[in-house]
Every structure is written in structure tokens, then in C-alpha cells.
Amino acid sequence: AQTVTQSQPEMSVQEAETVTLSCTYDTSENNYYLFWYKQPPSRQMILVIRQEAYKQQNATENRFSVNFQKAAKSFSLKISDSQLGDTAMYFCAFMIKAAGNKLTFGGGTRVLVKP
Amino acid sequence: EAQVTQNPRYLITVTGKKLTVTCSQNMNHEYMSWYRQDPGLGLRQIYYSMNVEVTDKGDVPEGYKVSRKEKRNFPLILESPSPNQTSLYFCASSLVGYAETQYFGPGTRLLVL
User: Fold this and answer.
1) Nearest chain B residue (CA) to A106
2) Are B22 and B75 in contact (CB under 8 A)?
3) If DSSP codes are grouped into helix, strand and coil, which group holds residue B10?
4) Which is nearest to A49 in space by CA: A40, A39, A31, A62?
5) A107 vs B41: CB contact, 8 Å cut-off?
6) Given this model, what pLDDT does residue A91 score?
7) Which of A104, A107, A109 is CA-nearest to residue A3?
């Protein structure tokens, strides 16, 4: 079975500082994608960033970047220059080719950005 | 505007009273899926559909039914809701293809008394 673990239920960060969210996963597959989704208080699921397992270069989207360690099965998200609008639940997820379009999610990390 | 819509957004019901949550997308996506979100468990897939008349179980299908008679619609049916189905439900859609971006609806908050 494929599993995703987010070990930090909650984190807080001061505005303008950096916070890193951890995610580990377990799969025997070699062909997969990893994702981070943001869920603000509106509950909308918003794709933040994605990473293909075959790409060694870590993905970056503006203030969001990942540290992908394939051997360790780790996929952490770094939020730089945190803004109040980053306050949200963040979910790590992955998709294996053999499972089609199915996303497997972690339990989530709640991030609170303090002014 | 490309979007996935769900109705209702909020629903309070009683045990055993059949209900349907509708999901509709306007992006001509073949793939549609239902997830439920529970604290500490993230989102878990209930059912999915690869195309019209093609549906299959996800990880937590017990107590749910779906149908896909039209490409744009994928309703979730709870024939006899129970309190353990109190949850936040999301519909999602995408093109069929490995790692295609999934678009999520706004969520439906369901409380079963």
C-alpha cells in the first residue's frame, strides 16, 4: 500500500520568515509524481507545486520550493518570506502511474502565519 | 470560467435519509473522483470514474454509490447515511493521463445526526 506521512500537525511562523513542512512517503513504484496542496479557510484545494520523481532538480514556484530526496522518500516544502495569506492546511500527496489519476494524501499540516 | 461545482455546500441530515451530492465540471474532463476529508487522515478516495458509464471503487467506498451517465456530472449517493459519514467531501476532475492536474470543487460539508 502507498502511504504519505506528515509528521507535523501544526506549525507557526512569523510573517516574512521561512517555514519547512516535512513529508515522507512509502511506495515500491519508481514512476510517480509528488504534490503539495494548500487548503485555506475557504476549504478550496489549491495546487502549490509538483515534482516528477525522475527529475533530480527540485521544483520551485515563487516563494515555494521543495527538497526532494528520492532515496529517503522525503518531499519537504519550504515557504519563504511567509505571508499572512499562507495561513492554511497543507497536504502532501503523490500519484503513481500504476494507479492512474488517484491521489494519495497525507494527514496535513496546519500552518499559521503570525503578524 | 473553468470550474468544478458541488451542491449543496452544506447539508445536515438524519441517519437513514437518502441524499445525493451533485458534482459538475465544465472542462470536458474524462476523469472524475470523490474524496472525503477527515481530521488527521487527509483526503481519501471514495469512487472514481475514467469516463461515462465507467466507475470503480477507491479506498473507502462502503456506504456510497456513484453514477456517471453524462461526462460532466458525477453525483455521490448516500443511500442510508450514518454518523460516520459526517465529513467534508470533495469532487475532482481531470483529463485522463498520468499526473494530469486535478481540479477540485469547493467541498460539501455533511453532518449526519
Assistant:
1) B42
2) yes
3) strand
4) A62
5) yes
6) 98
7) A104
| Higher pLDDT among residues B27 and B98, named by residue | B27
A29 touches chain B (CB under 8 A): no
- Which residues in chain A have their CB less than 8 angstroms from residue B48's CB? 100-102
pLDDT class of B30 with cuts at 50, 70, 90: very high
Inter-chain CB proximity B98 and A50 less than 8 Å: no
- The per-residue pLDDT for A29 is 87
Residues of chain A neighbouring B104 (CB-CB closer than 8 A) = 44-45
- The answer to whether B66 and B95 are in contact (CB under 8 A) is no
CB atoms within 10 A of CB B110: 21
CB contact under 8 A, B40 and A107: yes
Residue B64 pLDDT > 90: yes
| pLDDT recorded at residue A104 | 93
